[in-house]
Amino acid sequence: MKMGYGKLSQTDIKKLIDVAGEENVFTNKEDLVPYGRDNCPYKWSEKFRFIPDVVITPISTSHVSEILKIANELKIPVTQKGGGTGMSGGCVPKYGGILLDMKKMDKILEVNKDNLYVVVQPGITNLRLIKELEKHGLMGPHEPGSSPSSTIGGALSTSGVNYRQGVMGALIDEILGLEVVLADGEVIRAGRNSAITNLSKNSVGYDLCHLFVGDFGSLGVKTAATLKTIPIPEVEEIHVVTFPDFESTLKAILKIQRAMLPGIFTYTAFDREYMEKASQIYGSEVYGGAVLIGFMGDREVVDYTRKKAEKFWEEYGGQDMGPEEADAEWENRFDVYPRMIATGKPAARWHYEDPTVKMTDLAKALKKYHQIVAKYGFDDWGGEAWIYDQTSTLSAIMYAVDETDEDNWDKYMKCANEIVEAAIKMGGSISNCLGYDKRGVGRHGLSLLKKEYSTPELRTIYEIKKALDPNGILNPGILSLDEMEGV
Amino acid sequence: MALNLDYFDKDLLICNTCRCGFCRDECPWYMARKVESASPKGVMEVIQAYREGVVKPSQQLLDRISWCFGCRYCKERCPPSNLPEKFNARVDPGGAVKVLRYELRKKGYTMGKSAETVNNNVKKTGNPFGVAKKERAKWAEGLDLKKKGKRIFFASCMNPLMGYGETILKISDSLEKFGMTMERLSKLTGILEAVKLDRVSAKLLKGTSKNNEKYINSLRNSAKVLKKLGIEFGYLGEDEPCCGSSFYTYGDFDSFESNAREVYKNLKERGVEEIITLNPICGGVFKNYYPEFIPGFDIKVKHFVEVVAEEVDRQGIELKLDNEMDIAWHDPCYLARYMGVTKEVRTLLRSIKGLNLREPEATGNLTRCDGGGGPEIICPDIAKGVAEYRVKELMDTGASVIATSCPACVMMLEIGKAKNYPDVSIFDISDIISMAL
Q1: Which one of A72, A294, A334, A358 is separated from A486 by 20 to 30 angstroms, measured CA to CA?
Q2: Distance (Å) from the alpha carbon of A398 to chain B's nearest alpha carbon
Q3: What residue ranges of chain A are covered by domains with CATH 3.30.465.10?
Q4: Helix (H, G, I), strand (E, B), or coil: what is residue B308?
């Protein structure tokens, strides 16, 4: 998509103020600088590189619509931001312009207890939604590790995964419909093969709803989402089961999965390297492998499933660590962000690659990732797997990256690319939930995307983008769409 | 010593590379403004940019950071701060904000007329309200308190006079409806300050006597409870100094330091070894900031509730309310996070027969600010919104009354209840203990 964006003049800013109100438009430098980065690594010297020209905090769909009309006419880039916890640069204004901070649109518009869905605005944090739905006896639809600060809108734009997807599914399963403002300011309803946004199964046209999930804000601005919910069950039980090695952990999980037991809401598996690092921080014991497994349902169902699962994991040497260990692990599930500080370097942060692989490739994949990290000499923080279903799992590797250590930046990019390429070779996909484009370091890019997609496939993606956003104003730079002209 | 931003080098590095933002969404400042620069995570990026010259010093920068309530939620919630101590990974955005206020004030920018008036009042009269000294000691009349002691009861200047603050905020709230801003009102208090304070304060007191009554009663109740428990203490009366918290809050560290030295000297000369206070703001300031400026600061500081909980347990005293009460407890930021007192309150309240303790969603060390802490005089409309949110959260517990123990919290909860819960009573914990003992 050809660039050549316009620049905002004082008159344009005045127009934006007229539309959104003075209290929602920010142009002072101190208000702009916190919008330059997300949670993907950036060189320390480049932390203020991607600063928007104006930040707008819309409070309604009509605000968004009017802002987009102005931006489209003037060809001004518009980047959307939720919690800023993404790890692919998705909310970072690569070309400056307008930054739409969606956090003021954080209302719950409807809680339908009878038909079990909820309608929300995109700016609500995942944890706040969980807490508010709890008051209605319902379970929040999305609970990722970033829940205290990530938003439902951000999660929808990245197609996130969550801790309870064993029962509730990931967001792609839970989303029923969206309200979307298109690049020209038009507002549409995007349901599942329907214009109706709260019906899960229809057959009237394209599935526009899922088109916008995982679009990284490149096709429209989500202003409302209808999501499935479920009643909070009578019992929720978490167990941490340790194994002599990671292979046995996975074999046990596969066996449990194949038994089709009801009420297993999470399987998160960890390898030895992960536990070794946790041990350095918390002094915990190290095992060859472990799984955090959660059961929910009424008492009888949970007892039934747990007893059956127990038999399977015991076959592979699994050992239940008891409720105290499990509760502590569950309590700490959000607080993994700062662990790299234990390297002794305050500027060390995690780098997290998350390719999707099949369950049967998981052990092989993690082993390969560890070899790559060792080859480049980075501090390996272990592997974990968020297991979605029998066909796929997020295979994650974490390693410490010191943002101030810019001499090693090229090495770091090579390491990241090699991990992802290893997954592609196994028939995996570049990313399960974080996105493939690491904007801050400018790595990955179209050449990597071409390793997963064929040319006609990329062209299809590009044509969709062009049809919905001909001026390329929405989140330019993301998904390498700015490099796809003539692909 | 946290006198310049170098002290926060590591905090800035950790926060600006971690970027989890877990501190942001429940921060009262952010909840009211919903823009990154008005959040702990965002302000750490702003401060980093300021240090690198990307953001220049300006009045608008000081205005932006003047709204932080200093409640320390961010520091408490911060995942790095919660790592095992050996990693020394503290991140204190609120602390860094106060130092930036200090730096910007030194460059000639101002925290606003209201804040400067409060600081001038403390300099001239020893209390933020500019009221004559004798007024602040009136609460103790007839209690027959000793004037000396190794252990003193520190009444603070807020508890005896908080009715003034409440009145000013209520007047400001009414005037704002007519377009009269707090800024203009503070000019008015500036005028009051210039005239003879005794005469004006007497007139003011007349108008606020109803508001002031409850604060004074809480003080009287606490003194009576301590006496009843057999605890020996003195009260310095008119000679009690002001801890100078407002100097620190509003970025005048130089005045804070000279005042702190004076106060310490004064207390040492009087042989004071331990302070019991009902005001956790003073308690928190003595405990946290005095040691920063006075190496070897050796006066023990306890909140009233710590002393009472310990004594009730030691003496095996049974506490009982005549009429059953459902009480929502609001942990003041200064009590829970600056003084670290949360368990003692629960032990004490749960031991009272007839008292059903209700805990709100945000509780204990992760309590939610109710809009006090300084910015209430700079941006009263925002502080009022924060207070209304907190009152709702407390009342959602199903409680019929609210209890806390901080004069600024009582004041803000009074402001916050007016719209939707006008009939709810706000008690200080000393009132509850007094009823139950």
Answers
A1: A72
A2: 14
A3: 1-232+453-487
A4: helix
A125 touches chain B (CB under 8 A): yes
Does the beta carbon of A335 lie under 8 angstroms from any beta carbon of chain B?
yes
pLDDT in tens, B129-139: 888 788 889 99
| Polymer length in residues for chain A | 487
3-state secondary structure A256-276: HHHCCCCCEEEEEEEEHHHHH
Given this model, what pLDDT does residue B386 score?
Answer: 95
Q: Name the β-bridge partners of A292.
A: A240, A268
Tens-place pLDDT, residues B27-76 = 999 999 999 999 999 999 999 999 999 999 999 999 999 989 999 999 99
Contacts of B22 in chain A (CB under 8 A): 148-149, 334-335, 337
Closest CA to A360 of A227, A283, A258, A443: A258
Fold held by A1-232+453-487 = 3.30.465
Annotated domain spans of chain B: 5-109, 139-162+207-437
Q: Is the CB of B61 inside 8 Å of chain A's CB atoms?
A: yes
Q: Is residue A67 a contact partner of residue A19, using CB atoms and an 8 Å limit?
A: yes
Measure the CA–CA gap between A184 and A3, rounded to whole angstroms: 17
The residues of chain A that CATH labels 3.30.70.3450 are: 235-334
- The CATH number that domain A337-452 falls under is 3.40.462.10
Q: Which residues contact A135 (CB under 8 A, 6 or more apart)?
A: none
Query: Is A453 within 8 Å of chain B by CB?
Result: no
Query: For residue A48, which residues of chain B lie inside 8 Å, CB to CB?
Result: 49, 52, 54
ipTM of the complex: 0.95
pLDDT tens sequence across A293-318: 999 999 999 999 999 999 999 999 99
Nearest CA-CA distance, residue B358 and chain A, Å: 16
CATH topology for the B5-109 domain: Fumarate Reductase Iron-sulfur Protein; Chain B, domain 2 (1.10.1060)
- Residue B191: is its pLDDT beyond 50? no
Q: Does residue B183 carry a pLDDT above 60?
A: no
Whole-number Å distance between alpha carbons of A322 and B213:
55
B381 touches chain A (CB under 8 A): no
Residue of A48, A152, A341 for testing the chain B interface, max B β-carbons within 10 Å = A341
Stretch(es) of chain A classified as CATH 3.40.462.10: 337-452
Per the prediction, chain A carries an average pLDDT of 92
Handedness of CA A239, A244, A247, A248 (dihedral sign): negative
CB contact under 8 A, A149 and B42: no
Report chain A's terminal Cα–Cα distance, integer Å: 10
Residue B198 pLDDT more than 50?
A: no
